[in-house]
Automatic annotation (TrEMBL):
It catalyses: [(1->4)-beta-D-glucosyl]n+m + reduced acceptor + O2 = 4-dehydro-beta-D-glucosyl-[(1->4)-beta-D-glucosyl]n-1 + [(1->4)-beta-D-glucosyl]m + acceptor + H2O. This is AA9 family lytic polysaccharide monooxygenase. It comes from the Eukaryota. GO terms for biological process: cellulose catabolic process. Residues 287-306 form the CBM1 domain. It is found in: Secreted. Residues 24-220 form the Auxiliary Activity family 9 catalytic domain. Has a modular structure: an endo-beta-1,4-glucanase catalytic module at the N-terminus, a linker rich in serines and threonines, and a C-terminal carbohydrate-binding module (CBM). The keyword Ribosomal protein does not apply. InterPro entries: AA9, AA9_LPMO, CBD, CBD_sf. PANTHER family: ENDO-BETA-1,4-GLUCANASE D (PTHR33353:SF1), PUTATIVE (AFU_ORTHOLOGUE AFUA_1G12560)-RELATED (PTHR33353). GO terms for cellular component: extracellular region.
């Protein structure tokens, strides 16, 4: 009886979806620890609310025209956050069934110009099903909001934060999965660390994999056991790991520049002070002049025939 009710419930849900085939969506805003950064601030805004369906296209990174912040928003910005902060994304609601997941790209030197190429992406969060409801339903009930936390162990630097909602109502044919993507530009302050595994986009998805191509999506598809594509959520550990080489290269270059600048300004004054001190302590003190004693800081080079008593 319970199984029959579940089947009827799923059938009713999918029938309802057919009346919402135009329910496309975009990411519009995000909050940090409960405080908004502003409407469509610090994000790459796509030209429309249409989905990306070609998983081998570079559009799968940050949506159409999303390879840099230039031209996607009137005032490109980067928002400052901390590792471990709570992030709330606000999407247009959609009744199309599917998961939501989040990815980080970095650390990088400039989030405004980063194009998302290379194996620097890590999956940091996913919601498939909770309490018998797919992620899109949970978000519909919460006004399009979804909250998760950034990893605690992150190296300071700039990052792209990619929010993805995958709509499965068209997944009965190859190329029918609809990816809705929004990328945010962040400057993260963290204690150091690395997330693994890392991968490239495109590269982690295949149009024919069972999480994207579901031939029985309207006839036997069990939403309760569905798992989003893209592999497991990354493990982020303190210190550098084997997967951190590309990110470490970027951060090291910045660190080297800072260290060089600091050394240039500090070394000359230190050398001068040392030379002055050496001169003061090596000068010969005239006969009967003080050249020692408790608390004395002058030259201890007494004239010939004299000594400290």
């Amino acid at each position: 009886m319970v199984s029959s009710l579940k089947a009827l419930s799923k059938f009713a849900a999918y029938c309802a979806l057919l009346s919402f085939v135009s329910a496309h969506q975009n990411l519009h805003e995000f909050y940090v620890n409960g405080v908004t950064v502003g409407y469509e601030k610090c994000m790459r805004r796509p030209p429309s609310n249409n989905p990306v369906t070609d998983v081998q296209s570079t559009d799968i990174r940050c949506n159409v025209n999303g390879l840099s912040a230039s031209g996607t928003n009137p005032v490109p910005e980067v928002c400052a956050v901390n590792a471990g902060d709570e992030i709330t994304v606000i999407w247009d609601t959609s009744s199309h069934p599917g998961p939501i997941q989040h990815f980080l790209y970095g650390p990088i030197s400039d989030a405004l110009t980063a194009d998302g190429s290379g194996a620097k992406w890590s999956k940091i969060d996913v919601l498939n099903v909770q309490d018998g409801k797919m992620a899109n339903v949970i978000m519909m009930e919460n006004g399009g909001k979804y909250t998760f936390k950034l990893p605690e162990n992150l190296t300071s630097g700039e990052y792209l934060l990619r929010s993805e909602m995958l709509a499965l109502h068209g997944a009965g044919v190859i190329g029918g999965g609809q990816f809705y993507i929004g990328c945010m530009q962040l400057k993260i302050t963290g204690p150091g660390g690395d997330c693994s595994p890392k991968f490239s986009l495109p590269g982690i998805y295949d149009a024919s994999q069972p999480e994207i191509y579901i031939p029985d999506v309207y006839n036997g598809f069990n939403t309760l056991t569905y798992t989003a594509p893209g592999g497991p959520v990354a493990t982020c550990t303190a210190g550098s790991g084997s997967g951190s080489t590309p990110a470490s290269t970027t951060v090291s270059a910045s660190t080297t520049r800072m260290t060089t600048a600091a050394s240039s300004s500090i070394t000359p004054s230190s050398t001068t002070a040392t030379s002055a001190a050496a001169s003061a302590t090596s000068a010969v003190v005239a006969k009967y002049g003080q050249c020692g004693g408790a608390g004395f800081t002058g030259s201890t080079n007494c004239a010939s025939g004299m000594s400290v008593v």
